[in-house]
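Q: Here's a chain of 237 amino acids. Please give me its 3D structure as tokens.
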Amino acid sequence: MKVLLTAVFAASAALSTAALAEAPARESNFNVTYVLELASDGSILKLEPHPSMDLPALEQVIESEVRSWSFQSAQVDGQFVPTRTYLRLGVYAPGLDPTQTQIVSATTGPAIRSMEAPGYPAAALRRGDGGLVLLKLKLDAKGNVRGVVPMPGSSKKREFTEAATASARHWRFLPEMANGQPIAGVVVIPICFQAKSPEPQACDWTGPDGQLFKPSSLSVAIRPAARITSELAIVSN
């Protein structure tokens, strides 16, 4: 099972939270986020789609696979404790057929609460220029963005970096929780500016440790509190 992770933004204007909703359309590839609560020993206490897909048969297939994985809960003062995290899955399901459904990516960490896409720089749009910006976001325990740092691999064009950074400062996240207490975190989000496309388009990108990611997710957590340890899923966290 190969992990594929990325985020997309296109020239077609600001994408609201609704436009980035988890509920899948009739397409082969989509993303879904689950609330995942773990006991101190890593066993699953709760696994619930956030929000519900309203597709019981498909959810059953996905949840059956996830429940076969192993997890590690967060540590506080060297002790494993009950943990709440958000499990982001990339799913391949042609026609939303449960019999053909496969999980193609998985990662744990904070979840996106609200996100507005950055405005496309007008001059770049007129020129037909595009670019990729990789942002490392430092989150406080409330899920607010307290720091934004462009990462190596980002476009050299300042207009893209400035647009992405200005927008990212207003994004909000749902933090992981350890022993009932919310905790700070760090996530990496790629923003793809593609002026020639009227719709959002995914793009490949190189993330932490030089790993190549492909389309499937909106964020990659750095050192998440809860981790997937199962050999059934190759996971970048």
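Q: Can you summarize the key feature?
A: The CA atoms of residues 87 and 121 lie 33 Å apart.
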